[in-house]
């Protein structure tokens, strides 16, 4: 039965043609995403404010447990794409020449089927797994207690010996890479078309395998711009989060015919 299910999902995925794009395509996606944000700013800025407020609440809750904070914020990068689903609907409406009311965005969170909900649960499990792994690694192998950001920098990042920071980065990359490959196209595809979750994931992997260099650059831009946006007390997320969400919609449109 699992083999038959996988075969059906692969057949369904192959109905969606994947396009090859140039290495500079991510810059074009960013430009289109920026234009979408300011053509219909209210939904995007509200999304950004909610994410920034959530990040601030997380920082206040875990300020004395930096090992948890570091894992939680990096785990947030894994589940952030599902939080942007409403903004994909905005970009789709803008393609049709309308700026949708906020009700259209909210309606996405009341789906008629459970595909997006299932995918969100899977991403949440991946994020939770990374938080637990990160906490166990740092608390188990750090040469002292890591409770504040400066202690993380001193005992983990700038440690004179050992491999803890390198192992932390490697484990994070090992988890993030397959999650990125599985979700970069899958979430907007699930919103836009009638396709199963496994078929959407396979389509996303096909897009990555067909365009390794552009999507590697896209992953770097997503992480880099998000980290920069977090620096000014997370306030940069108010603009950066919706900008990247709209740009992700254009990545999907460019990659899937």
Automatic annotation (TrEMBL):
The keyword Transmembrane applies. The chain crosses the membrane at residues 44-62, 68-90, 116-142, 162-191, 212-245. This is Putative membrane protein. Keywords: Membrane, Transmembrane, Transmembrane helix. InterPro entries: DUF2189. The lineage of its organism: Bacteria, Pseudomonadati, Pseudomonadota, Betaproteobacteria, Burkholderiales.
């Amino acid at each position: 039965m699992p083999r038959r299910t996988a075969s059906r999902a692969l057949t369904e995925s192959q109905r969606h043609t994947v396009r090859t794009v140039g290495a500079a395509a991510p810059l074009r996606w960013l430009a289109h995403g920026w234009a979408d944000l300011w053509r219909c700013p209210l939904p995007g800025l509200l999304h950004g404010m909610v994410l920034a407020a959530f990040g601030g609440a997380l920082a206040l809750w875990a300020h004395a447990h930096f090992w948890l904070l570091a894992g939680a914020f990096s785990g947030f990068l894994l589940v952030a794409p599902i939080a942007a689903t409403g903004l994909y609907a905005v970009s789709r409406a803008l393609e049709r020449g309308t700026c949708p009311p906020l009700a259209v965005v909210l309606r996405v969170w009341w789906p008629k089927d459970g595909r997006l909900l299932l995918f969100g649960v899977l991403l949440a499990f991946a994020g939770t797994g990374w938080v637990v792994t990160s906490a166990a690694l740092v608390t188990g192998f750090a040469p002292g207690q890591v409770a504040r950001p400066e202690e993380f920098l001193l005992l983990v990042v700038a440690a004179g010996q050992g491999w803890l920071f390198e192992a932390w980065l490697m484990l994070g990359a090992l988890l993030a890479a397959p999650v990125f490959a599985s979700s970069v196209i899958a979430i907007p595809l699930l919103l836009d078309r009638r396709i199963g979750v496994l078929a959407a994931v396979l389509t996303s992997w096909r897009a990555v395998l067909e365009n390794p260099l552009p999507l590697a650059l896209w992953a770097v831009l997503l992480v880099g711009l998000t980290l920069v946006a977090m620096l000014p007390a997370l306030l940069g997320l108010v603009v950066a989060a919706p900008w990247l969400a709209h740009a992700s919609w254009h990545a999907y449109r460019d990659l899937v015919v």
